Amino acid sequence: MDSDSLFFSLELVTGSGNSLSLEQKAALQTSLVILKKNYKFQRVLFWGKILGLRQDYFIAQGRGQDELRDRKYLYSFNCMDWLLLPAATDSMISEVSKAARGRFIGDPSFVYERAEVNRKSEDRVVNKVKEETRLSVTVHQIDQEVSVVPRGSFIRNHQGLVLVNRSFTGLSESESRKLDSFLHFREAKNPKQRSVLQNPAVDFLEVLSDDIPKGSWSVQCEFASRVCVLRSLLWLGLTFYHLPGTPQHGYVYMGDGTKNLDLPFML
To answer: Which of 38, 193, 196, 243 could, after both became Cys, cross-link 210 (CB 3.0–4.6 A)?
Structure first.
């Protein structure tokens, strides 16, 4: 969610248990402005919080000229001092899947170790990965799988850049009740799953209603139907909000950073 409307936005997702202390909110309000200036970001968003056993990770997202491709992530323990996360790569994702298990510790230098036996040589191999690498991969995976925007809130211009649509005035109340009105904010993986209306400038993203398994999203109207709230059942802790009839929308993740792999058996 945008740092410019942080206090207001957090109030709209408190129904999911997503909350920060007044001190943390005040610190974020100040530090994210400094972060935007120091890194020369076009926009800075508060991405969320990943719970650790010793300390929690607060995550910020900085965006450049292209809102979709030019994104960087930073983490903090005190909402004031920020460290840049390395960009997640395929090799990092593979390392994390082999070694990291359980809850986050809250120490970026902590090393996860997991032994396995090579089936061909029958040698015992110990896979290792640092928690900072795991943090980067987890944030990347959550954004790839459950980041959400309303249809029409972003456009792709003639140069191929993805920009905030300044003329977006919000979805109607009836549209906000439909999962088809919300899109994954990532590069389209399957062109057939793009928005059904197919306006090239707007419909370059995939609709949530095509997600597998079906039923992995909860859509609710709260605050006397003035706010549309989506919650991911795949990554518990991801909450998206939108005020119908206004351009206000955003999402935040506050959870332990583990995927709900039991979801297909729960539906």
So the answer is: 193
pLDDT in tens, 104-134: 999 999 999 988 877 777 778 889 999 999 9
- Mapping DSSP onto H, E and C, the string for 8-25 reads HHHHHCHHHCCCCCHHHH
Locate tokens 């549209």: which residue? Answer: 175
Q: What is the pTM of this model?
A: 0.90
Angle 195-198-204 from CA coordinates, rounded to 5°? 60
C-alpha pair distances (Å), 147 with each of 83, 155, 205, 252:
22, 16, 11, 9
Residue 145: enclosing H or E segment and its boundaries? helix 131-146
CA torsion angle for 209, 172, 149, 257 (degrees, to 10)?
-70
H or E segment to which residue 136 belongs:
helix 131-146
> Peptide bond preceding 150: is omega within 30 degrees of 0, i.e. cis?
no
Residue closest to 260 by CA, chosen among 240, 234, 241, 226: 234
